[in-house]
Amino acid sequence: MADISSRVDGDRVLGDLNALRAIGAYKTGVHKPTLSEPHLRSLHWFVQRLPDAGLAGEIDGIGNVIGTSAKHGPRLLAGSHLESQNHAGWLDGPLGVVYALEAARVINLDPNINGAVEVASWCDEEGHFGHFLGSRSYVGGVTEADIDAARDRNNDRSMREALRDAGLAGRVRARYEQGRHIGYLEAHIEQGETLESSGLKIGIVTSIVGIWQYRITFTGEQNHAGTTRMAIRKDAGLALARFCVDIDNRFPAACGPRTVWTTGRITLDPGAPSIIPGAAEMLFQIRDDDPAVIARLEELLHSMAAEVNAQGRCAIAVERIRTGTPARMDTAFQGAIEAAGVDFADGKSLRMPSGAGHDAQILSTVMPAGMLFVPSIGGISHHWTENTADADIVTGAEVFVDACRRLLAQ
Ligand code: HGY
Ligand code: MN
Ligand code: MN
Questions:
Q1: pLDDT higher than 60, residue 248
Q2: Which pTM value belongs to this model?
């Protein structure tokens, strides 16, 4: 067995994760929306630790941090994100950033290892301003106009203003260099219960879902909740509720084996108890790793909307506001993770798809990419009770660093 586990310092990994947990702490989780004060403090924390890993870097013009190495030889890029969903978990994102930092500290400073790990913290993976704006900026998929248009979904603040307030206005945005890296490796909590329920320790990610997001609006007639007879109402809120139930009744016949759909936000206008809502809006999401399934469900959505409009009571409009290309993870990266899992996790690993979106799916458009998961307690994530056992965090770090070493040696 390789001796690398003597150099992965599990206490240092746990110490770093808990230091980040203390920044923007919320109950046992964190509240670090993109470009918020605690998110910026976390980015500065990361920048300050780059030199000890043989790296140099700064926060770039969209809030990414890329740590680069001057060491000769092959280079592997590794990372994840440091912002969180609102009032959410302490590991979603930071686990992958700290594992990347640990891999850099162990590998970059070892003269016997040819090559280096470069690290990244991608801004806005959690979609407060857009989708994957940080990693998409790095691969050249974000224009200045996109940033001009981006607004915080929590408070409608413009991204331009947030970047200016953070002192990042005018900074260059880091771009990937063709051929600089052999690929990208990301570690993440599973955010589901597969590993824990199977007594396994490592998920070897095979594919990452595409996320398609819709804004569905309903227009009825605002009126008095007491004097308007039921028979003549045009209640936009009721039309929305009926549509959600109709989706649940009709999607199962058209979906794939792992398709999921979610209505994550409902807004009623004006949202007062004595007023029949004249307008309603739902943010609706479909996820699958097969684009044909998503296209089929989108077609069904539009035909269901046409049926509602044909009834002539409330008008409905379906607007697609985001698409996402599913990604296949590189098989050589999967193999390196599996081999490392044999050495450091007793082979307790499983090849599995990711139902969550990740920056790895963006990086996979320009270089080979791989992901590994560690177990989530109770499968909980995007909630402040999200957690992973310390022993599983350390095992995951050792597998991750060994996988990096194997990939650099290929
Ligand atoms: O929503 C997602 O899949 C990711 O956790 N942001
Ligand atoms: Mn994440
Ligand atoms: Mn997340």
A1: yes
A2: 0.90
Instruction: Characterize the bridge pairing of strands 369-374 and 183-189.
Output: parallel
Residue 59 DSSP symbol: B
Share of the chain above pLDDT 90, in %: 96
141-195 pLDDT, tens digit each = 999 999 999 999 999 999 999 999 999 999 999 999 999 999 999 999 999 999 9
245: domain CATH number? 3.30.70.360
Q: Which atom, in ligand 1's list, is nearest to the CA of 358? A: 4
Residue 197 CB-density burial (10 A; 0-12 exposed, 13-18 middle, 19+ buried): exposed
- Phi and psi, residue 89, nearest 5°: -85, 160
Binding site membership of 126 for ligand 1 (Cβ less than 6 Å): yes
Q: Is 338 annotated among the ligand-binding residues?
A: no
Supply the residue whose CA is at minimum distance from atom 3 of ligand 1.
Answer: 356
The answer to whether residues 99 and 182 belong to one domain is yes
Q: Identify the residue whose C-alpha is closest to ligand 1 atom 5.
A: 356
User: Last residue of a domain, which of 322, 340, 375?
Assistant: 322
22 and 131, same structural domain?
yes
Whether residue 21 sits in one domain with residue 149? yes
Question: Could you give the 3-state DSSP secondary structure of residue 212?
Answer: strand
Total number of domains in the chain: 2
For helices 331-344 and 390-409, give the axis angle rounded to 10 degrees: 130
81 annotated ligand-binding residue:
yes
Q: Which domain holds residue 230?
A: 212-322
